Amino acid sequence: MSQQSVYEQLNDEGISVFLTHAALDIPSVVASVKSPEAGAVVLFAGTTRDNFGGKPVTHLEYSSYPPLALKTMLSIAQSMKQKHALTAITMAHRLGVVPVAEESILIAVSAPHRHVAWMGGEEALEMCKEKVEIWKLEEFGGDEGGIWRANRDGARGAPLDAADASHPPS
User: Fold this and answer.
1) C-alpha span between 142 and 144 (Å, rounded)
2) pLDDT for 116-167, tens place per residue?
3) Separation between Cα atoms, residue 87 and residue 40, nearest integer Å
4) Are 91 and 17 a contacting pair, CB within 8 Å?
């Protein structure tokens, strides 16, 4: 990921977390965790799907308070690196509009062995969805408008009319 496209970033030894409004660059994120010490690299790529609950989704729009979201992401990455003895971890989240079939989150981890890489990557994703201060607007086609949700699978959202859709709920 080029420095120009990164909105905000924090780093620690073997750790990188960032937020960006640009499309996420999978090869760059994978390269950021590769190491001669690692026998496994695992990547999770979360993409915008074209439906939710039987309703067509036109796009997602993500919003956050970057200083707090990055601090939380860094804390999660540090915890996962230590807990699972990861070689490296990168967590990247896109902000703004994310069209259908494009990535909104990438989590890449490397480790000496595949088992801990799988476990560390999955736990990092679940912690990110549970704790990071990022909200998403699911925009449905037609007159229905959208729903702001915490960035959690299936978490209940608040329906909005078009006038309310410009900002997340407080």
Assistant:
1) 6
2) 999 999 999 999 999 999 999 999 987 778 888 876 665 555 554 544 555 5
3) 9
4) yes
